[in-house]
Amino acid sequence: MTKKKLLSSPPKLNHLSWFFCKMFTNFLLLLCLLVYLQFNPQHHNRFPHDPSFSSSYENFQGTPKIAFLFLARHRLPLDFLWDNFFRVCVSLSFSSHLISSGSWLLHFLSFEHYVSDIFCGLQNADADKFSVHVHSEPGFVLNETTTDSEFFHGRQLNKSVQVVWGEPTMIEAEKLLLEAALHDPANQRFVLLSDSCVPLYDFSYTYSYIMSSPKSFVDSFVDESTGRYDPDMSATIPRSKWRKGSQWVTLVRKHAELVVNDNFVYPIFKKYCKRWKAQRNLPKKILQILELNFLFQKRKLTNCIPDEHYVQTLLTMNEVEHEVERRTLTYTLWDSSPAKDWRQMWHPVTFNQPDAAPQKIKEIKGINHVHYESGHRTEWCRVANIYSSCFLFARKFSQGAALRLLNDGALGFHDPEAALPA
Ligand SMILES: *[C@@H]1O[C@H](CO)[C@@H](O)[C@H](O)[C@H]1NC(C)=O
Ligand SMILES: *[C@@H]1O[C@H](CO)[C@@H](O)[C@H](O)[C@H]1NC(C)=O
To answer: Which residues have C-beta atoms less than 6 Å from ligand 1?
Structure first.
């Protein structure tokens, strides 16, 4: 009897001490990890910093920020997705995991995943690694009524312009965004995004990727077509410096400053890059008739699409092309199929809910090189000399498609339930 009693009570004690033992081991492990991280701040960085490139503009002391610059029409239809993207890094997800789960180690089979969680949780508690800036058209107010995401509250520029497609006003809006973001010296990288852009990875990966390169990411190539360069520009912008490329650039601070302070190239764009430039002196009524005339437009139109040339050409004029990774971080799927309207001959495809399958996202993430027909150049995507996937962002995504990304967990966010579209 006594034996039996003795045998039956210890398991309870064992169970309890086992639990405490486990907790204690967990605690020790956590302590080791934190000490290790403290002395190896580089560890979180999956892309080692390229030491071959140093320059004076990298002198900022402290945690560098990435400025996310949203060029929006009105509201941000994908704010709920970005909310999740930013939220992972400001929530103390690590400690909550620790409290809620005794066997937290099992939850993180991947060490990388685990470390990024800690890094975001503890080091980024004050959102000190990013800032958000939004340019919406005049008259629109981005506030608690128009967005549920706190990351966008109070982030609208006070100054804005009416953006007209194909006109230099687009560049003006970009300049305003960069100027506002430059006020914070911690902003060291500047990512230009549209209101239909989505992130393809979590914040930690995105941050490491962008910060580990000392260069800007600017899609830039020699534009061999004759339609967009106006020979009248040649006194200021020689034909040899004229470049073309995606509008969606990521700039280092030095290059952002070049764009904001530029009073040389921009006025030329403003003067010559007008829609229907060849007919700009004609009366409005006649212009309208001409605009309706399909054949006439196709033949005579000089439309230089300034946003696809300005940053590229400006950086080339300033002879800093070697400080640029000549590719964009934003994926766009172009539809070149014959369209009813010539204006849509080359237009970006919008991903709707059925198009945003996990397999498709995986394919986009798997792209590791870009081929340029111009110059027969193939750009193998690298970050700090490590071959990597090319794209961190993608466009154009509908609300339904973005919601699907979140629900499918295609972007690797941890907690995709925080904010959903209203
Ligand atoms: C947001 O701005 C609009 C327009 O100025 C205003 O009518 C509305 O009351 C504001 N909402 C909040 C919650 O401040
Ligand atoms: C806009 O102006 C207000 C008041 O002048 C200021 O408090 C706010 O920070 C400004 N917002 C931005 C994004 O600059």
So the answer is: 141, 143-145
